């Protein structure tokens, strides 16, 4: 979500009243926003650059407000204040108008055919007789930057140019020329440069260098001239210095060049509607003509209003309220959507202003009605349908296997689903065409080019990053791979895989084979051909010849295991032998996924002890029904069932947050299924009933909820049991036992206190990425190692190629968990923003 920073005092002045921080936070929530942070310029600079550079910064309080990504009208102070004022019924939504110039001739922007190769679209408008103050000027510039980062997609879709109209003269020409033929003085520069020279100049500019690749490889660059040949801008890189705006500017010419015409129209509408209130005629915009290469002429800005119709019943049903048509129209009007009933049933006509391009469906209107009504004001209701939730079988099987594999001594790893083509092909001794891999059309780095088709490369890279850890290294991963599948509507499918790896001085094939047998025991698959599983020799370029086997389950191949080929091990920068296992888990779904796996493997030698039948000489025990009396009342009565229903209104279980024997006991105490009137009780009853045979495995209850039945009074009840005929000395024994217990506890505590406290430590491998290939990597490493904290010890480092000549710094460290966290490390390292672009945790292991 975009974050808008506004000065608190200036915001309150525009709103016409002062709020406390809590009151404004509540106002933002009511309007569908979030007050993210209360800070100041000095505090921000202090966090990012240190106290020394923050000494001269301002102490003015800033509000950081999170706004929805599609609410472009809230990205500046003007739109935010206007929206809040309308929401609080202190202002009516303004009506935006497009006017012809007083002179009768509109400014024209002529597009030539050469622009089709780079940025073929353009729109324009004029803000006439506008008055800037420093705050308005800053907001004007900041809105352009917010739009560039948001809807403009970092200028790749739309680039905005604003110019002082009094310093230039129309008509204007938007064309494209060879870089060497473009020469002008760019913004805030003292001399002229050609476009080629500008590309070299801005390669080191922290702000503009990110936009150079948009046109850098194009044969021609876009450029805008006025009638005198003066360059207004070279979009999307830089404006010309000749036409730059200032506080004294009265007439602003706005042009937007784009690859997406729809986005360009939205951006132009946003800028002119937000700042037209400062014109001599508020909320009016002077039109401009855009002439296309085919001679077609369009008038901009469009400032189009459109109307939609929907029913009040639709909003009431979707939001969960019962409001009249008139009331719903009032709610929508508060959200700048002028609405009124049409008089035809419960139909409402809603007018969408040009500031709300986010409204594209009736659901968007319904959402605004819900915001205006207030989410906290919607009455909580119980769903009319009741269902019993079950875990997705594949995920349930995965979770159960993870627990048992960890118990077998293997450590779980989680790796990225994207990898390089080299990882799944060349390094494994395969051809990329054989892998059925899904390719990324525009990968940002060489590390993320395809979706992985196997889990093995990720585990090998994890081993390589942790090869200095004590041997043996035993890792496993259960995750999805992505494979091409023409039968699917998207052309691909996910497949859940299990992969394990053993890395030691010896291959350890017997360890991996044993893990396979253990896994099959847990999955209740016998070691036999036909209906069970077996392995047979196979050839695979990834594995050592003669040391590879294919796994068959019920006659179907599900995976392979074996000793990895030395060449494969060497390509992942490993030096010791390694065994691996990888197989598909989805063929094992079925009854196995529905039962509870435990650490106790079912064995054929299960003890069988038949219970002897009751003979006639043995009197049968009297059968006794479960007690219906509980701490909540007698469940055989209406009052008891109602009390239990109220008790379960906000609970899923009788005790705690998981099912337990307390639920089973109360379930047994209910004589018959409860009626529909007890909705919460029926939900719980259906849920507990679904467990069937698993109830015996429920954890024990911490409290007793079902009371024992009252035994019938015995006619021969004597009081002899209350008489101690032997005069036992239990009191003396109890006091002696207590004394001995206290003595042993004190001795144990003294012994334990002498043991040194264990310090929890972790080994972390960090990927520190530079801005580009010109970053001084030695200086960057020096800056990283300069980060000093108690409990932090830096280790070895190396430079790893990323792509296009760029290298990243991979550096290890050991930290004490209680003193140093990854967030703290990342914040400290990214503080060197001149060298560091980002920091990622490549590996994290407990020591």
UniProtKB/TrEMBL annotation:
Q: What is this protein's record name?
A: Elongation factor 1-beta
Q: Mind telling me which Gene3D superfamilies this protein's record contains?
A: 1.20.1050.130, 3.30.56.10, 3.30.70.60, Bira Bifunctional Protein, Domain 2 (3.30.930.10), Phenylalanyl-trna Synthetase, Chain B, domain 3 (3.50.40.10)
Protein role: Catalytic subunit of the guanine nucleotide exchange factor (GEF) (eEF1B subcomplex) of the eukaryotic elongation factor 1 complex (eEF1). Stimulates the exchange of GDP for GTP on elongation factor 1A (eEF1A), probably by displacing GDP from the nucleotide binding pocket in eEF1A.
Sorted keywords for this record are: Aminoacyl-tRNA synthetase, ATP-binding, Cytoplasm, Elongation factor, Ligase, Magnesium, Metal-binding, Nucleotide-binding, Protein biosynthesis
Cofactor(s) listed in the protein's UniProt record: Mg(2+)
According to its UniProt record, this protein's enzyme class is ligase
B5 domain mapped to chain residues: 303-380
Stored InterPro entries? aa-tRNA-synth_II/BPL/LPL, B3/B4_tRNA-bd, DNA-bd_dom_put_sf, eEF-1beta-like_sf, EF-1_beta_acid_region_euk, EF1B_bsu/dsu_GNE, Glutathione-S-Trfase_C_sf, Phe-tRNA-ligase_IIc_bsu
Annotated localization: Cytoplasm
Catalytic activity, EC? 6.1.1.20
Indicate the quaternary assembly. EF-1 is composed of 4 subunits: alpha, beta (alpha subunit of the eEF1B subcomplex), delta (beta subunit of the eEF1B subcomplex), and gamma (gamma subunit of the eEF1B subcomplex). Interacts with elongation factor EEF1A1.
Q: List, as start-end ranges, the regions of compositional bias called Acidic residues.
A: 719-734
